[in-house]
Amino acid sequence: MRRCSPEDLVTFGVRFLTSKAVDPSNARVVAEIVVQTQAMGIHTHGLALFPYFHQNIPERVDPNGQPRLVRESGIGAVIDGNFGFAQLAMRLAKEVAAAKAAKQGAALVTVRRCGWLGALGPYLHSLTQQGYLAQLWAQTTNCKDAAPHGGIDATFSTNPVALAIPTRGDPILADFSTTTISMGKLKRMAQKGEQAPEPIFLDAQGSLSRDPRVALEGGSVLLVGGAHYGYKGYALSLWAEAIAALAGGECNNPDTRISQSVGLLVIDPRAFAGQDHFYGQ
């Protein structure tokens, strides 16, 4: 198997994106987070973004769309992604959130109308290196992946969340969908003809299944907690929708232009019990 260095992959990404009329400096920002995600082993959300960009620029992702800070308060801010790259919007969101958290102890920065983030966890790594705890929620406007708990019709996207905890060594990063698995993993399972170890899908008639293909044929993927305890994942999914509303984005709406809304919470332990106590515990 041929191996490519991260820098070679970034160089490829920059060349590819600039061929799509993306500014070279912006192309590097996007390519670096894509390659970092791949290097972290999240293959469904790493280099997979390049074919996504190929298919969706410029119809869904504006190669010249620049994120813009549109509202700001003491600990809060709203960024409009202008249907551009989520990676650029997240760079601005992290800068604003870190600056506010350093002064106020915590910050919540929301983003609306941006492209696909891919995996969430890699965005938070740099914040943990600065000593911050971080939480990131994402929602997609018009995906039909998951039915409400107790329902049949797919209504919500997989509405993922990531959590990041700094330590004196490597940070703790958690990144997961509010559904039992992500759509990227679901599609990969379907392509390989694999079955889930337990029934985590509903077919179009509402029957439980281990076959991921039923979710792509009018069915849905179950929320975290599964058939009996999926109300827990449903609550988390609704929280992601609420964050989208805070951002001024569209909650689940199949008639709107597809985009993502994001909520980034950053907390400085120095403003609470102190960093030494936090790390010690």
- Helix/strand-derived class? alpha+beta
The proportion of residues in beta strands is 15-25%
Helix-strand string: HHHEEHEHEEEHEEEHHEH
Strand count, sense and barrel status of the largest sheet are: 7 strands, mixed
What portion of residues is helical? 25-40%
Strand order of the largest sheet: 1-2-3-10-4-5-6
CA radius of gyration is 19 Å
> What is the first-to-last residue Cα distance?
43 Å
Question: How would you describe the overall organization of this protein?
Answer:
The structure is a single chain. This protein has helices spanning 6-18, 24-39, 49-56, 86-104, 121-129, 183-192, 226-229, 231-246, 275-280; strands at 68-72, 76-84, 106-114, 133-140, 161-165, 172-176, 201-202, 208-209, 220-221, 260-267. The strands form two sheets. It has a seven-stranded mixed β-sheet, with helices on both faces. The chain has 281 residues and is α+β, with helices and mostly antiparallel strands. The protein contains nine helices and ten strands. Helix 1 packs across helix 2 (24-39). The mean pLDDT is 96. The radius of gyration is 19 Å and the shape is globular. Strand 1 (68-72) and strand 2 form a beta hairpin.
